[in-house]
Fold this protein.
Amino acid sequence: MSGIRLFDFSELYGLDWASLQASCRFLCMSFPPSLLLNDHLVPLVQLVCLIYSCITSMPKINIFDHTTYPEISIYCEQDILFPVLSQFAPEWLLGSRRFTNRLHSNLDLDVPKKVIDTFSVGLKYISPIAMKKSLVKESWAEFCDHAYKSWDKSSASEMPVEELNPEDSFYNIPIPFVLKGLVEPYEGTPDERIVSILQLGWTELNTLLLNVPNLDRNNRSVDVESKDAFKWCFENDVLIKPTDKNLGTVLVSTVWYDEKVSSFITNNKGYAIVSEEEAHTLLQRQIMRIRDLMDNETTKAFTGSLPRFFGSRLPPLRRRKDPQTGEEIVAEDKWEEIIITLPVFVGLPKIHKSPWGIRPVVPCHSVIQGPVSEFLSKILKTLLADHLQILTSTKELVCTLESSVRDKLSRLSPLQWKNNVYICTADIEGFYTNIPINECASKLEDLVLAHFGYGKRSSRVKAAFVKELFSVQQDDLIFCCKIDGQWELVRQTDGLAMGMPATPDIANLFATWYEMRLPANFMDRCILFKRYIDDIICIITADNLHHCEQVLWDYSIPGLKLNWEISETNAVFLDLDIWRSPFSKNRRLKYRPY
């Protein structure tokens, strides 16, 4: 029997026939070789051999000691191997996870059960007080009225055909609508396309509302529990914070948090503490720049009411009557009376790092230059389609794995699949805050010119407009931050502003400029190359590990540090666990939610 199709068996299982005869002799005696070597039965035969080898192995399997694993475990698919080996794990290990919905903490004191129960479980997604679903429904109805009225007035799709620019779609980019003040119910006839979009949105929202659990803690008042928990946190100088990457709720001491925030601001060259007088001057300049942008000829060339959108967060102009003509004219600003809301710097604890750090966030949802950044984002998104390496979602990655990547892997020889494929992932350290602003502006300008055509006057106008929008977003961002126990005004002098709508698009395109100039050797070795902002995944073919590292060395962005992880078998990227089995005849990457 050992002389029958030995090579086929070795190809399928990575074992010789004598090995099968020794460890799973009952299979050889019960089934003919033609059945055991059937391609469709490979997973089943692997499973039987694995289970039998695990049960009969001597010494017994110790889940914490890989030397006790049977040899066949090296050749099995992970989706077969993990469920079997998990049967040999203790209950406490099976019940644990890297991150759970329990409360995280770095405190040196015991946290009472009432605090843990209040801020853990599903409460990382919902507030600890009972949710009034009627308020959500009322807010949605008001949102729809805002949408109908705003899009009816300013959307390019609502403009008469003769007012659209048929020669240049750049000036037909739709303008976002503005939610501002109480709006009466919409009385017109809304566009059917908008109605269908909002109906889909309501379907999703209503599904979420139907699945919100009703909190029942043995008839105890949730409000009273929350009050007790908040009181304990206040008395012990403890902060309740969401975590970076949405890994749950965390309790940290105010001393630890203040020290991390202060250290980040004072040790970062991209931030400068400014006086109140200097902050006033910068904010006045910002207001004047946005007003100038509203009068810009390029701004007025867009269909819709882009100037009105840019000025939607500015303080209203003062007006007075001309004593001679009686006409209403614009009066000089009384700067001391103008009130502007400044964002407050916050840090999200990075509990997945050791030691814990913070991710800097400046919530810019209400800053006066926010609408400028929002429209800049819409312009830059039209450029992203030119660059296929930019990933937009996990779904897109899965589609790529199942199409082009699968096709390329199928062309590899069995030996190449076994020895020459590497799964490589990287993150760009401190991506946003380490991008040099002046260099970034020139790179954006160059990409706009490349997209619309070098040498054209119209392209230069668009590039100058994009550069001005970027400058308005970046140059005078002022925020509040508590540093060494004192509230200070801080100006961001370099690095992209975290929290601005256009920041992810700008960062994407900044890296893209360098990716367009990658050496041919790098791209030739990539079966897959995708980047989701600061996270990169590559499937590389290389002669060995050292060769793979040399290939990856060709990917570099000046001034930024990349942290690469290389594996022959598996990697975690975004929210996917991706793996391959080098000994599998089925040459494909597998994946599952992480």
User: Anything to note?
Assistant: Residues 6-94 form one domain.
